[in-house]
């Protein structure tokens, strides 16, 4: 099977045609991010992904991470890959130059991440968490904490983790029991156990900075009584170098369905009196701070979905071009000549392109919210990012799970054999709809915090933007696209009104439709991106040659004809199907 090749042309097209990256490049904060720099950056990232990271993917899956005498051993090749990643400055792209960052848009960091995740997701989960931890500390740590931790973490010599989950507290963080007791010297003694800690222990870096949610003895009940602590593996000396080992350890590693090269640790804090922790911000505001990391991580997980879907698609396409089965027009045929195989490949490719545009559009909104000089633009962009976060995380990862399954189906029995690699993509991707908040939780967040809370105002602003694209399609001769998109948007508007009205009188009824509504939202938003794609791919565009642009028009057409019509059915389920859930008697589950 062919190795992964970074889809540089597709990414450049998506940045320009769908995400609106030019809006960022015009900002004073990002004046260095011109076309030349972006092209060079993507080219070098693609080389690292294809030549260094991708060759470690299959061996890492076979070898896995293992715990030996308290030390986590990573698969062969991961250390070399990490040093290449750090030496290339890839960890520092989007962070503050005052602490060693390059000050580039977060959007560029995400397109680079897509390539690295596609090359080796098990390796890249660790770097994803470190970047999220840097983002959190950049916003909420004290000046002294930033000076101690950010330069080392941005440089990649220290890594970071997120410690939320406990055996009895998954999504319900009000149940966490990890305790933090005040000490006279201003530090805290942290005791407890955390599970599912990605890269909680390893030897890639000289220190690991754990961000731990814990409860003070006198804290209020529930999530309002959670505080956030920096609990480093090694306590920093006065000169900033790693000192004494802290009272924490990895108790075990989880044996997982996928990403087996990524160490998922059970972490114990305070076996010998308490691990030393340093409070971030104010007491009892820990969950609020952690959401800074979690929201960014959710969009990053959407990118993971696009990445693995892209790699699975590339492998399925290569197989379909080579595998001879059956005859057409009197000659032996490769399976790509068969209509149903073409349908599967087009379904995969069109959803990848829609998801990439949607996710990068969310990233651009984040960068605008953080850097635009106009407060009104910043506020609108922040609201747009918040709205799209659950949609992109859920829709892109649900699609990724289906796309990797379809890729396996294209390869038939050979796809079911581990040696071909298709099964690894299928296994690896399955975590994505689960971690960083299950997709069901994303749906609850979408309707509760993003739709109902402001009476649908932020969604209405997005719908107005979609209307503008529909108008542009009509003005440019894409009447059929405009009609299809207008019909789908009408279904989404109707379902949104229903969600808002229903939640006001029967919240359980609205919750019963939340996941379907989220799927509807993603499907229509994906259509919006594909209309933008079709507009940008018209003849005369400078975004690619004739064949490339023709392919973009074809995948857009496929999406409009095969994927977008699902909006009508999804809207009907949202508005008419909830009673079948809530009215079902308990005897159904006997």
Task: Describe this entry's structure for a reader.
This protein folds into three domains: 8-155, Orthogonal Bundle (Butyryl-Coa Dehydrogenase, subunit A, domain 1); 159-285, Butyryl-CoA Dehydrogenase, subunit A, domain 2, CATH 2.40.110.20; 439-581. 57% of the residues lie in helices and 13% in strands. It has helices at residues 8-19, 22-25, 35-53, 57-63, 78-87, 106-119, 121-140, 143-155, 286-322, 339-371, 375-410, 412-415, 422-429, 439-452, 457-475, 479-505, 507-512, 514-536, 546-563, 566-576, 579-582; strands at residues 66-68, 71-73, 158-163, 179-182, 188-198, 207-215, 226-232, 234-236, 242-245, 248-253, 264-269, 275-279, 324-328, 331-334. The strands form four sheets. Strands 3, 4, 5, 6, 7, 10, 11 and 12 form an eight-stranded mixed beta sheet that branches. It has a two-stranded antiparallel sheet with strand order 1-2. It is globular and about 80 Å long. The two termini are 47 Å apart.
């Amino acid at each position: 099977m062919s190795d992964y090749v970074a889809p540089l042309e597709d990414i450049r097209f998506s940045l320009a045609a769908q995400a609106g990256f030019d809006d960022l490049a015009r900002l004073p904060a990002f004046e260095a991010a011109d076309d030349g720099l972006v092209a060079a950056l993507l080219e070098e990232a693609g080389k690292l992904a294809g030549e260094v990271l991708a060759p470690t993917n299959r061996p890492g899956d076979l070898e896995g991470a293992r715990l030996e005498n308290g030390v986590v051993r990573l698969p062969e090749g991961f250390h070399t890959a990490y040093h290449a990643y750090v030496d290339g400055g890839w960890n520092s792209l989007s962070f503050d130059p005052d602490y060693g960052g390059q000050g580039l848009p977060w959007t560029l960091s995400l397109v680079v991440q897509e390539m690295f995740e596609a090359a080796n997701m098990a390796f890249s989960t660790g770097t994803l968490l470190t970047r999220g931890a840097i983002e959190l500390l950049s916003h909420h740590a004290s000046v002294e904490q930033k000076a101690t931790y950010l330069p080392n973490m941005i440089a990649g010599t220290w890594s970071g983790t997120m410690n939320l989950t406990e055996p009895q507290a998954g999504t319900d963080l009000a149940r966490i029991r990890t305790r933090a007791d005040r000490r006279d010297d201003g530090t805290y003694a942290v005791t407890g156990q955390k599970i599912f800690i990605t890269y909680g222990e390893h030897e890639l870096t000289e220190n690991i900075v754990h961000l731990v949610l814990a409860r003070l003895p006198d804290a209020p009940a529930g999530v309002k009584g959670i505080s956030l602590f920096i609990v480093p593996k090694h306590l920093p000396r006065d000169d900033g170098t790693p000192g004494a080992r802290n009272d924490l350890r990895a108790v075990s590693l989880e044996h997982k369905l996928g990403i087996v090269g990524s160490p998922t640790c059970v972490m114990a804090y305070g076996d010998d009196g308490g691990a030393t922790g340093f409070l971030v911000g104010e007491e009892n505001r820990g969950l609020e701070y952690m959401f800074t990391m979690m929201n960014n991580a959710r969009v990053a997980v959407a990118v993971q979905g696009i990445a693995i879907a892209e790699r699975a698609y590339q492998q399925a396409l290569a197989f379909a071009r080579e595998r001879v089965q059956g005859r057409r027009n009197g000659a032996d045929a490769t399976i790509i000549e068969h209509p149903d195989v073409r349908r599967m490949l087009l379904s995969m490719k069109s959803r990848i392109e829609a998801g990439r545009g949607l996710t990068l559009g969310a990233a651009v909104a984040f960068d605008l919210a953080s850097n635009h000089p106009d407060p009104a633009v910043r506020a609108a962009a922040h609201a747009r990012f918040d709205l799209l976060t659950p949609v992109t995380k859920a829709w892109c990862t649900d699609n990724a799970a289906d796309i990797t399954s379809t890729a396996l189906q294209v390869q038939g029995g050979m796809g079911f054999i581990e040696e071909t690699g298709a099964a690894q993509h299928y296994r690896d991707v399955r975590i994505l709809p689960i971690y960083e908040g299950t997709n069901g939780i994303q749906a609850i967040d979408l309707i509760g915090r993003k739709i109902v809370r402001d009476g649908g105002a932020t969604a209405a602003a997005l719908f107005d933007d979609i209307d503008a694209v529909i108008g542009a399609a009509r003005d440019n001769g894409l009447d059929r696209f405009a009609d299809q998109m207008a019909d789908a948007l009408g279904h989404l508007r109707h379902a949104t009104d229903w969600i808002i009205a229903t939640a006001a009188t029967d919240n359980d009824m609205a919750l019963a439709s939340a996941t379907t509504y989220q799927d509807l939202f993603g499907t229509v938003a994906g259509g919006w991106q594909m209309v933008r794609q079709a507009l940008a791919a018209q003849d005369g565009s400078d975004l690619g040659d004739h064949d490339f642009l023709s392919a973009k028009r074809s995948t857009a057409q496929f999406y409009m004809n095969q994927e977008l019509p699902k909006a009508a059915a999804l809207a009907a389920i949202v508005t008419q199907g909830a009673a079948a859930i809530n009215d079902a008697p308990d005897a159904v589950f006997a």
